[in-house]
TrEMBL record:
GO terms under cellular component: cytoplasm
Subcellular location as annotated: Cytoplasm
Binding, Zn(2+): C286, C291, H293, C299
SUPFAM superfamilies named among the record's database cross-references: P-loop containing nucleoside triphosphate hydrolases (SSF52540)
Protein name: Small ribosomal subunit biogenesis GTPase RsgA
Organism: Pseudolysobacter antarcticus
Amino acid sequence: MQISPEQLVQLGAIGWRTETLLPADTVGKLVRVIAQHRNGYRVHDGVEEFGAQPAPRFLKRDADPQIRPAVGDFVLLAPLGPALIETVLPRRSLLTRAAAGERYQRQSIAANVDSVIVLMGLDGDFNPRRIERYLLLIEGSGALPVIALSKQDLLSADNCAAAIAAMHEVVPPQTPVFAINAKDEKSVAVLLPFLGLGASVVLVGSSGAGKSTLTNTLIGHQRQATGEVREHDSRGRHTTTHRALIQLPSGGCLIDTPGMRELKLTGEEDLAAASFADIDALAQTCRFSDCAHAAEPGCAILAALASGELDQGRWDSYIKLRDERDAASDSLEAQLKRKAEGRVPGKALNKRTAEKYGRS
């Protein structure tokens, strides 16, 4: 079942050709996932919103979480019967993180987005070092980061300028950084170039940073619930309880997300490509290719730390994130190995059972 180019744009598919998403022999209805709940999904076909259920294979316990439908996905519904998600179409981007807990598992946050707006409050929530973690997760997603510092009205113009300067010290030069008042329509207009016709954006940040307030301002009315933050740490309660894609008056699609208390790395992040290219470049000039940057002669990192060229806090952050990334990578490798080893005995047992009792 074909869908018009106009409907594709309304669903946030700017620049996508209908024939790219839908080959001529496609069977099924194209829709976009706009919300995920415990009891199913909400999807939109460019005309109306309705509920849909995932095909049984997506619900298998051993299924890779990344193959399951995520908010922002373009999917095909079964041609007959109730709305059943049969196929997840190839993604142009996917923002993920490691799920909370000790067992390694990736959690999909949003699919097919052009930009990720990281919202951070200019109150007790302000922490430039945390942005480095967001940038690592965004770098491998295929989307571009945008930093929005909310609660601009709490600070003087000079203090806002200082906060923006502090942020520029930890983000790559090409990363946009804005200070906004999420309650003020004129103030948030700086974000509209990223929210134009057919664009898709996901909004992330801590609870209490103002994501729901910003969403309401961009929509033009009170849709998302908002709440007060705690005085001692400027954190808020989760007023957004699930990820949801919202069509904006500006023509774009915005995915609002619950506040993230934990940002665990997946183990596949590229530190140099995210925000540590300067440290990577320094390390390349060390005398020894396997330099541990501890006490080796000719270590460019140690020299840069001693001269003040490299900030000690930035280096400490790099080491912390590198070690966490490597630990997550080791956990992933071990888990994949256990799965591979588990399949062999299982197959052998099935074979012995079939030989003894015959195949059913």
